[in-house]
Amino acid sequence: MRTEVLVVGAGPTGLFLAGLLATRGVEVVVLEQRSRPAEHSRAIGLHPPALHALEGLGMAEAAVAEGVRVRRGVGYGDGAGPGSLLGELSLDRVDARFPFVLTLPQVCTEQLLAARLEELAPGTVRRGREVTGLRQSAAGATVVARAGEAEEQWEARVVIGADGTRSRVRELAGVGSTARDWGDHYLMGDFDDPDGEPGAHIHLHRDGVVERFPLPGGRRRWVVHTGRERVPERAGELAGRAFERIGLAPEPDTATMLSAFTVQRRLAGRMVSGRTVLAGDAAHGISPIGGQGMTLGWLDALALAPLLQDLVQGGPGRPGRLSADDRPGGRLEDHPGFARFDARRRRAARIAARQAEVNMLLGRPMPSAACRVRDATVRTALAAGARNRLARLYTMGWAGRS
Q: Which DSSP letter does residue 391 get?
């Protein structure tokens, strides 16, 4: 079986890239190991650059209609009560069109993307396919996939690895990566939110951060730092730790999702190798603290889509275009456009990773004396003229210049 572009992974990045290619008239197939879409909420944050990206598929309005617009963040220091308030960060000036961060569960985002892709190119996503082999040549690549008891072979001009932090495509392409486990553990869950207040609240307690974010449907995401300890995924565990720290807690019986996770970072040594390109978490798995991962993957796709269009629709003698027979060896990394893509997107990933890790360090458990220094610093930042720049930083306003 043949296609121009073969995408491995039907998560947010793979579906979004496939949609972009379909709008450009590029033949694309998506292989996904899972037999059915995921059902849990997982990632929830869509920054302004992500919403601008969705406009390319005509989906921004639909996403905004389903999500919650978070226009302000409130920071609290060590302890509970009014005296712990550090300040408020308004997002009203971060973007002319989308002056907010949208919270929308990843399961809903993927449903919107999959439905749009089915409109553009019916039958693009092939589920229940586990990739087991990859061979590359000057003209393209061959992917071997297991589909139940059968085996399929797919030939493509380019293979895109959008298959997550444990990317099989990255492994098969021989692309190395650097990893770091910070050892910080968290417990998160989604609960009923009777107040329905649309702000984000961050509590920098001495025993570890407690975060609260609004969700659609009268729900709220709670995140609690549990130190170096991976705790059981129990709603009562999360609620108990939250109440001990801030005097507030969700109702355990209303939990619809619970997940314990560890902060890790894995950055690929390169994103382009032969006829394989990595995107999203396969290229740069970063800490979820700050919710930048999905936006980062979509920006990869936005930069990659025109290059892939040039590749498959170009030809010899057409300026700026690359075809299989006008570049020695057919290696995409030898083409200036793909080389720039590789360098710029890896740079953006490093920026996002550093920002996520700063967020994590601020929320770590620490002695009371260190808490006082941290709280004073954060209070000053939230009260100073740099507040607007801080808001742009936390909404990935830098991403368009990376």
A: H
Token code pair at residue 27:
């033949």
Query: Rounded to two decimals, what is the model's pTM?
Result: 0.94
Domain that holds residue 51: 2-401
Give the helix, strand, coil percentages of the chain, each rounded to 5.
35, 30, 35
At which residue do the structure tokens 């009260």 appear? 383
For the record, the structure tokens of 230 come out as 């991976």
| Torsion sign, CA atoms 238, 243, 248, 254 | positive
Cβ(398)–Cβ(390) below 8 Å: no
Does the structure show a pLDDT above 80 at 323?
no
Residue type present at position 205: H
pLDDT in tens, 28-48: 999 999 998 887 788 999 999
3-state secondary structure of 357: helix
Q: Considering only 65-69, 132-136, 150-154, 180-184, which range has the smallest mean pLDDT? A: 180-184
Tell me, what CATH number does 305's domain have?
Answer: 3.50.50.60
Of 214, 254, 252, nearest to 44 by C-alpha is 214
User: Is 284 in a helix, a strand, or coil?
Assistant: strand
CA–CA distance, 362 with 225 (Å, rounded to integer)? 11
pLDDT of residue 383: 84
Q: Which pair of structure tokens corresponds to residue 355?
A: 């920002």
Q: Dump pLDDT digits (tens) for 232-282.
A: 999 999 999 999 999 999 999 999 999 999 998 999 999 999 999 999 999
> What is each CA distance from 268 to 143, 166, 249, 286, 343, in whole angstroms?
20, 11, 39, 11, 12
3-class secondary structure, 327: coil
- Alpha-carbon distance of 322 to 265, in angstroms, equals 33
Amino acid found at 120: L
Q: For residue 394, which of 107, 70, 61 has the smallest C-alpha distance? A: 70
Q: Return d(Cα 371, Cα 365) in angstroms, integer.
A: 9
pLDDT band at residue 220 under the 50/70/90 scheme: very high
Taking the C-alpha atoms of residue 216 and residue 37, their distance in angstroms, rounded to an integer, is 20
Give the chain's domain count: 1
Three-state SS for 234? coil
